[in-house]
Amino acid sequence: MSSSIMLLAVFFVFAFVAPRAIDAADLAMRVDAGSAGRRIPSTLFGVFFEEINHAGGGGLWAELVSNRGFESGGQNTPSNLAPWYAIGDDSQVWLESERSSCFERNPVALRMEVLREVEGGVGIANPGFWGMDIRAGNTYKVSLWIRSLDKVNLSIAFTSRDGTTTLAQSDLILDASEAEEWSKHEMVLEAFDTDHYARLALTSMHKRVLWLDQVSAMPEETYKGHGFRKELALMLEDLKPGFVRFPGGCYVEGGSLRNAWRWRDTVGPWEERPGHFGDKWNYWSDDGLGFFELLQLSEDLETLPVWVFNNGISHSDEVLPELLDPFIQDILDGIEFARGPMTSKWGRVREAMGHPEPFPLFYMAIGNEDCERQYYHANYLKFYYAIKEAYPDINLISNCDGTLKPLGHPADLFDFHIYTSANTLFSMVHKFNHVSRDGPKVFVSEYAVVKSDAGQGSFLAALAEAAFLIGIELNSDIVEMASYAPLFVNTNNRRWNPDAIVFDSWQQYGTPSYWMQHFFKMSNGAKLLPFAVESLNTSAVPVVLSAVRIEDGTSLVLKAVNYGQFPVEIRVSLEGVLSNEIDIFASTITVLSSESLMDENSFQNPHKVVPITSLFLSAATDMELSLPPYSIVALGLPLLSSSRADI
Predict the structure, then answer these.
(1) Which residue among 65, 377, 399, 511 is least enclosed by CB atoms within 10 Å?
(2) Helix, strand, or coil (residue 22)
(3) Three-class secondary structure assignment of 476-499
(4) What are the structural domain ranges in the chain?
């Protein structure tokens, strides 16, 4: 598509609300539907996962037990066991952390001494992440490590929050000879009752001392069997993302380097992962959702991983460039883990975890939002050249913004982050029109409307974001990737606001910003069609438009955002196809709108602001398209086989 046509398409952005309602057609849109078009990158619209708001632990990762290894209180014992708590009073049971585990990297274990024999037993309970979702008929795999100098008779049960109702239960019985050394035990519990805020209770009625460690409970049914909470993962799958960027964000940097995310501490058996305190978002992570699992998530979603790694810089300290070599080697080892052969050191570790084939790691970001830090440029170059020498096919992403001036260093892509008001984001539809096409590609890796315009996820935010994404789509010759941020929030730990997907222990919903992204899921790999727009009246019309042919060539999609308070009528002409080549009875119109710009979804009303799709029986090569006030609209026009262009 020529740049002149594209610029015409966004001309109307510069004026906002029309001063009066308009009865006749406001715009004429002429689409060259027979054109070969320009291919949109298959990576254009993706998702960004950061461990923030308990997005992973207590969210996407289906582990029900919080602080499974008793390590979150630190290595000095006795330590805080939270959120574990006693069942029984201090005259009945003694609970204490000790450095007595069989795991060298996780030395802390729990010593539980039953002091008195009490009917029903005493012990310890874990509420999970603000409650465990236990449902009748579902099965849950519980595993734990245990040691004792005596016989073991331990009740393992899911109970109601107050302990009055048992939902599922099993007994672990061992002879003294079986219990004298640390051993792992697994059992499957089938729930016969439901409680969305349940707990796991480990109790005994017999006076003796037990040591417990690495207690886990997972639903047996997870997304593709890989440990992801099914409902949340399906919401990602529905977006058909072109990539998954992970694991941060500021989470990658850490408030200090000692608390930064380190990939090698998150791979291998879960029991041997030390976990770490994510000091930027102020909570402990057992790192069950680690580097391997995030690569697996990308594969399960049939998309590409984008690994953001720490470049020796945190929010409070930086590694001198001359001391960076061990950090560089660490990242090279991480690449070997992801895509090295099974004969390599780290490839063997990946194989042992159940994935002999390499992962397709072709995108990596050198740091996050670090461009202005003292040593970023020097550190960046050392990483860049070391990685390119070993893996020339990996696309490396700079943290520096190259939209206004050249980066001054080599890069395949550069990050662009924008958190702003609705009006400002809408006005940025043209942001990438004049970015040099000779330099690296743009990665809009974090965008969102925030603060008063956003609430906790408003329709107004989604409206402006949709217009911004159409601008990205029109400029997809230079913008290669884009992702909303943040992706997830557990309502019990809202560290950032707003977010795309909201959940608690058992329910979830998408904000309008989540549903807005559905309008773009067919754009990845599609062909952007040339089109021209003409104003048919003297009033400025705040509308942004695009036209694409989806990747398999079977349909056309016209998208529009009306950012104004009045309806807009568009006279659409499709050139290069005949009316009888459009499947009228399968044509649809999808509209996202709401009574108030500040409307939000909620657990009580999760579908208050969602797209509504209906048949569009007026589909033709010449037709009228009506845009309601403040709306996002997509017109889907399936093509009969005779008119499908080769792509």
Answers:
(1) 377
(2) coil
(3) CCCEEEEEECCCEEECCCCCCCCC
(4) 3-42+525-643, 52-63+222-520, 85-219
CB atoms within 10 A of CB 120: 10
Task: Name every residue whose Cβ is closer than 8 Å to that of residue 386 and which is 6 or more positions away in sequence.
Answer: 328, 332
Contact yes or no for 17/542 (Cβ under 8 A): yes
Give the whole-angstrom CA distance, residue 334 versus residue 361. 10
Q: Rounded to the nearest 5 degrees, what angle is found at the Cα of 357, between the Cα atoms of 356 and 363? A: 130
Q: pTM of the entire structure?
A: 0.95
Round to whole Å and give the CA distance between 477 and 37. 12
Say if strands 527-528 and 543-549 run parallel, antiparallel, or are unpaired: antiparallel
Distance CA 570, CA 28 (A): 6
Measured CA to CA, the distance from residue 501 to residue 234 in angstroms comes to 12
CATH architecture of the domain with range 85-219: Sandwich (2.60)
pLDDT tens per residue, range 22-67: 457 899 999 999 999 999 999 999 999 999 999 999 999 999 999 9
pLDDT at 17: 33
- The beta strands (E) that lie in 466-603 are given as 479-484, 488-490, 501-503, 508-510, 527-528, 531-535, 543-549, 555-562, 568-575, 588-592
What one-character DSSP code corresponds to residue 244?
A: E
Q: Where are the alpha helices (DSSP H) in 140-264?
A: 176-179, 230-237, 250-253
Torsion of CA 32, 33, 38, 41, to 10 degrees: 140
627 sits in which H/E element: strand 622-627
Q: How far apart are CA 546 and CA 38, in angstroms?
A: 13
Per-chain mean pLDDT for the chain? 95
Poorest-pLDDT segment among 9-13, 409-413, 553-557: 9-13
How many angstroms separate the CA atoms of 194 and 200, rounded? 13
Cβ within 8 Å of residue 558, ≥6 positions away? 29, 31, 545, 546, 547, 572, 625, 634, 635, 637
For the annotated catalytic residues, the residue numbers are 369
Q: Evaluate whether the domain defined by 52-63+222-520 bears CATH number 3.20.20.80.
A: yes
Quick check: 498 and 450 in contact, CB under 8 A? yes
Dihedral class, residue 475 (left if φ above 0, else alpha if ψ from -120 to 50, else beta) = alpha
Give which of 165, 162, 155 is closest to 201, Cα–Cα: 155
Instruction: State the burial class of residue 470 (Cβ atoms within 10 Å of its Cβ: 0-12, 13-18, 19+).
Output: buried
DSSP-derived secondary structure for 418-468: EEE-HHHHHHGGGTTTTS-SSSPEEEEEEEEE-GGGTTTTBHHHHHHHHHH
Cβ proximity of 158 and 189 under 8 Å:
yes
Residue 277 near residue 334 (C-beta atoms within 8 A): no
Tokens representing 536 are 């048919």
What kind and span of H or E run contains 84? none
Residue matched to tokens 């409206």 = 463
Per CATH, domain 3-42+525-643 is 2.60.40.1180: yes
Backbone φ and ψ of 318, nearest 5°: -140, 145
- Residue range 351-410, pLDDT digits in tens: 999 999 999 999 999 999 999 999 999 999 999 999 999 999 999 999 999 999 999 999
Helix (H, G, I), strand (E, B) or coil at 339: helix
- Check pLDDT > 70 for residue 76: yes
